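Before going further, learn to read the protein records used in this course. The integers have meaning only within a learned vocabulary of local backbone shapes. The record below shows the convention in full.
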Amino acid sequence: MMITYKVASTQDEFDQIHRLNYTTFVQEIPQHQQNEEQILVDRFHLQNTYLIACDGPIVVGMIAVRDQRPFSLDDKLEHLDDYLPPHQSVCELRLLAVQKEYRKSRLFFGLSQHLASYCLQQKYDLAIMSGTVRQLKLYSQMGFLPFAKLVGTEEALYQPMYLTRETYNASLAGRLQPRPLTFMPGPVPITEEVAASLQSTAISHRSTTFKKIMKGVRDILCKMTDSVHVQILMGTGTLANDCIAAQLSVRKEKGLILANGEFGERLIDHAHRAGLEFSVLQKAWGQPFDKHEVKNIVQTEDINWLWAVCGETSTGMLNDISSLKDVCRENNTILCLDTISVLGSLPLDLSDVYLASGVSGKGVGGYTGLCFVFHQEEILPSPSIPRYLDLGLYQATESVPFSHSSNLIQALQTALELDFSERYKITEVNLTLLRREIKTMGFPIIVPETSALPYIITMQIPRDKSSLEIGDVMASFGFKLHYESSYLIERNWLQISVIGREENEITRMLETFKKVLLKV
């Protein structure tokens, strides 16, 4: 038996929910009046989110989540909040029901684990419910703690209860919940050594010790990329690209931006906001750039700088950077690159690149929170650039013009101690395995192997299935795929990354993936 867990979304599922609701809370627990249709539509139905357990197409278990006050418990207990522990965001759980023949299985635990994942995703830090006194032992195993007096009627008594992250983690269900495996381009799996470094005692960013660590990290990054200089900033890749745009604005020259995916289109937005003068060469998502077309625009429009994305994660495409280098070299044009999605994932040569952005997360394997701008020439401070975006200030102060996080830098230092050459080989082998299996399943892969990033695939899900639903169900089994970004949902695409994953983990994920496809 393979039970799948998901958020109810179809009319058939809602119809089954109403029937299960009737069976449980009319026929079994006499809380409501009988009716000929044998259907019970909850009074909060339109406000409920139903988490369901399905055996094939059959709904065999459910629980409703609702976060709009007043709750049903508000009607049963005066001053409800006086009973509750401190919290920021609370939801009420109702209508926990499982078909009788499934109650001796692990379905209750599976449903509670799916519920815990959903509540964390929604940022709830407290859940309350009225639990039937017939199942108090079960609720206790899920981490619920009782409070206040019993409510209801003699025929249907309920115990008010609450659940927090801490009580769930300490419960039997919480202890049995498998650690999720992430198959996303970011955030990527963090090693124990990197996690330990983040917990080290913080030191002043003005201290000699910190500056020594910073210099060592910058030296490693330059060596990894054949760069002369790199500046490390507190922020994300968006900040790094804003710094590049600000630096280009000082030159007051016309440029060309290439876009064939989500992140190329974001470069256009960066450039507009910085007031740059530029043309755009835009291709369909997943379509490569033609070297001769790029060269023609550069020559005919007197282009002085070119800005492109090295690895277009939105499609899984690796753009041909060597051809762009050729065009720029031949026409005395400076080249700028977004290398956020490739740094640490494949060998990178930035020796002919004027400016390039990178981050501490993703392929590098550190924590999100630091970004990099690589450059080959010295950069002087500019009074026309906002202070936080001024690379010249970073250059003049050895990358410490403002406050820095020693914890993030030390975690990054540990991440950079990895043998990346070996990691590149393992990642490529694992992607070959993944690509072969996905092809066997019959899913179209958006980017051909010859133009693909070596760590991620983007697949087209058939129209009769939902990438969002598949992703949700896979997450309920502990496998987090990349599917929730708006640009993926719009196209019904699903992405799987193998960064930091081992072959046996990929195999386990694929085995579950095949089973899930038969269920949704």
